[in-house]
Specification:
Radius of gyration: 31 Å
Protein name: DUF4340 domain-containing protein
Order of helices and strands: EEEHHEEEEHEEEEEHHEEEHEEEEEHHH
Strand content: 25-35%
Largest sheet: 9 strands, antiparallel
Number of strands: 20
CATH topology of the largest domain: Immunoglobulin-like
Strand order of the largest sheet: 7-6-5-4-9-10-11-12-8
InterPro entries: DUF4340
Organism: Caldithrix abyssi
Number of domains: 2
Structural class: alpha+beta
Helix content: 10-25%
Distance between the termini: 84 Å
CATH architecture of the largest domain: Sandwich
CATH class of the largest domain: Mainly Beta
Length: about 325
């Protein structure tokens, strides 16, 4: 019987004592409440590489500093967010139930040929650990850690990060660069060339000497960094002409203060009404971007250049200054 935050307990009919209700709550827990609910034990910061096999293929990821590289089925920069989501789920996700303690038939649980298989390689010696998951059955999937005998259950949210395709695991922002290193920018579009260079005061000037709007050039740099590939059309193109990339319709080149190119972006023909072909030669792949991105990376000259002050505007500013002085 509860008494405030306490309860009565007895070991026989003659002796009754009062104890904290938390003790009774602990005694009421089931076996599952007490057991370890992690799907697999590992330390995320020690994972040097890992593989994921799912219905879309087999993927191999390798840590490169703070970033991830995809090495199979292709070699390219990885999407850190989607790759880390796999490890985060394994580290922080929890099982919902134990289906069998010592199963004799893995096929019964869809684990003899699992839909999802993850192998982690950790530490300097790249020690291997692994975990498998079945296909979803309703909102439930079965799983098994290589190091322990029991089969557990997880929900659909647990396996969601494992279901991604190649597109999801690769870096889509192929035109990104360190904006602080940008010293000179060349924009060539439909045979019209503009060259912008930053002076010692960090102001941007057109090669003709006209002053550019700094915030517009800053927006241009942001737009380049935020260009998102909508589709990877050809990872190993042999004929760039069919994409309108040889010669290209447009080109962006960004240089640092050592006159080294830190970005080259080629713009090809339209694929359809919504997308156009493009390539960063260093990364080889031909991709598509949204047509709306064209005007973001090739703005009109008049939108980028400061308008020269007319005599009338100078007189207006002068009169405003005189009025302030009289006051």
């Amino acid at each position: 019987t509860p008494v405030g935050g306490n309860v009565f307990v007895t070991s026989d009919d003659s002796t009754v004592v009062i104890v904290a209700s938390s003790i009774k709550s602990a005694m009421d827990k089931s076996l599952f409440d007490w057991r370890d609910k992690k799907a697999i034990h590992f330390k995320k910061d020690q994972v040097k590489e890992f593989t994921l096999k799912n219905p879309h293929g087999k993927f191999h990821f390798v840590k490169d500093g703070n970033n991830w590289r995809l090495t199979k089925p292709i070699e390219t920069r990885g999407d850190n967010s989607n790759i880390n989501a796999v490890l985060n789920k394994l580290e922080y996700g929890r099982i919902k139930a134990v289906a069998a303690e010592t199963p004799k038939n893995l096929a019964k649980y869809g684990l003899s040929a699992p839909a999802y298989r993850i192998e982690l390689f950790s530490g300097l010696e790249k020690a291997r650990s692994g975990v498998s998951f079945s296909r979803l059955k309703g909102n439930k999937a079965y799983g098994k850690d290589d190091a322990r005998p029991h089969i557990f259950e997880v929900d659909s949210f647990f396996v969601k990060p494992f279901k991604k395709k190649l597109y999801d695991f690769r870096d889509k922002y192929i035109a990104k660069f360190n904006r602080n290193e940008a010293q000179r920018i060349k924009l060539l579009y439909n045979s019209e060339l503009m060259i912008f260079e930053k002076d010692s005061s960090n102001n941007w000037l057109l090669s003709t000497g006209e002053k550019a709007k700094n915030y517009k050039i800053s927006n241009l740099i942001s737009n380049l960094n935020n260009l998102k590939a909508q589709q990877f059309v050809d990872d190993h193109p042999r004929n760039l002409k069919k994409y309108g990339l040889e010669p290209p319709r447009g080109m962006v080149e960004v240089y640092n203060d050592k006159d080294e190119k830190i970005l080259v972006l080629l713009v090809g023909r339209d694929k359809n009404d919504d997308y156009f072909y493009a390539q960063v030669p260093e990364l080889k792949a031909v991709v598509t971007f949204k047509k709306a991105d064209l005007e973001k990376i090739f703005p009109k000259k008049e939108d980028l250049i400061e308008k020269p002050k007319t005599e009338k505007s100078e007189e207006t500013e002068k009169s405003k200054g005189e009025e302030k002085a009289d006051q």
